[in-house]
Design brief:
The chain is an alpha+beta fold. About 30% of the residues lie in helices and about 20% in strands. The protein is built from eight helices and seven strands, in the order H-H-H-H-H-H-H-E-E-E-E-E-E-H-E. It has a seven-stranded antiparallel β-sheet.
């Protein structure tokens, strides 16, 4: 299992730490669609739960949206703040203001606290991001490492090692909490890269978590999500096992579908 602080980080992405409001799942943000460069990490899908909440407060007060006051209190006086309608209103506010987390930003924030707690290492300072020969980009990556980590950074053999071949018999005992599934060139038109974090392994069940958007969830249904891979065929590869997420299995589980579609499917582990 991941470290206690990493588990707390996951919990806070699933339940953003708004004052006196529970159950607000962090939305997914595809930062490539917004073409934002040089922004604060919270504005490009790389922020922590606390940073996302703080930015929501700032935007609400600055632009007079009336959702939060300067002390972070919810201003939905006509709604019960724990009512699903109020929770949905705040989620829509986050999405409308491009506040959320993208897949590699989510994995970075969780693994960062995991390795700080378990090995006293800050992974963002140890990962190879840019070739030093590209001096300006290298300097920027050193000053803003979290913003410069993406799926291909995790797939880079300088940063991670190959753990499991997806085509061979899948043995969950070979996995560790903190390993990750790399999907390159997947989704519609094979244009997406994605990363899924292995959260825990319990006998024949692998628990995973990631930030993602499914096509059937529309504009407001996406976000950080949990799923499982159950070993139902011990001698088969991982793609022949039972993937379940949000109550869906088989091709109705879009995470599984993208795993099948990916031109590159690897399970890897950080060298840290």
């Amino acid at each position: 299992m991941l470290s206690p602080q990493a588990e707390q980080m996951i919990y806070e992405y699933l339940n953003l730490p708004f004052k006196d409001i529970a159950g607000i799942r962090c939305p997914y943000l595809n930062n490539s669609r917004h073409n934002q460069r040089g922004q604060l990490r919270v504005l490009v899908g790389k922020g922590t739960p606390a940073e996302i909440v703080e930015e929501a407060h700032i935007i609400s007060v600055h632009y007079h949206n009336g959702l939060f006051d300067k002390n972070g209190n919810c201003c939905l006086h006509n709604d019960h703040i724990h009512h699903p309608a109020a929770v949905e209103k705040i989620r829509r506010f986050l999405i409308d203001n491009n506040l959320g987390i993208e897949c590699s930003g989510f994995v970075t924030q969780v693994l960062r606290v995991h390795f700080q707690e378990t090995k006293q290492k800050d992974i963002v300072n140890e990962m190879r991001l840019v070739n030093p020969a590209r001096l300006l980009r290298w300097l920027i990556s050193r000053l803003r490492p979290v913003e410069n980590i993406n799926v291909k950074t995790y797939a880079d053999s300088r940063n991670s090692i190959f753990v499991i071949d997806a085509k061979k018999a899948f043995d969950p005992a070979a996995l560790q909490a903190g390993d990750f599934i790399i999907l390159l060139e997947t989704g519609p038109g094979n244009k997406r890269n994605h990363i899924i974090l292995i959260r825990d392994i319990q006998k024949n069940v692998v628990h995973y978590v990631h930030a993602r958007a499914w096509t059937n969830e529309g504009q407001f249904g996406h976000g950080v999500s949990e799923g499982t891979i159950t070993i139902s065929k011990p001698k088969a590869g991982i793609l022949e096992q039972t993937w379940e997420e949000n109550g869906f299995t088989g091709n109705k589980n879009e995470t599984y579908l993208e795993a099948k579609q990916a031109k590159t499917f690897e399970i890897r582990r950080l060298k840290a």
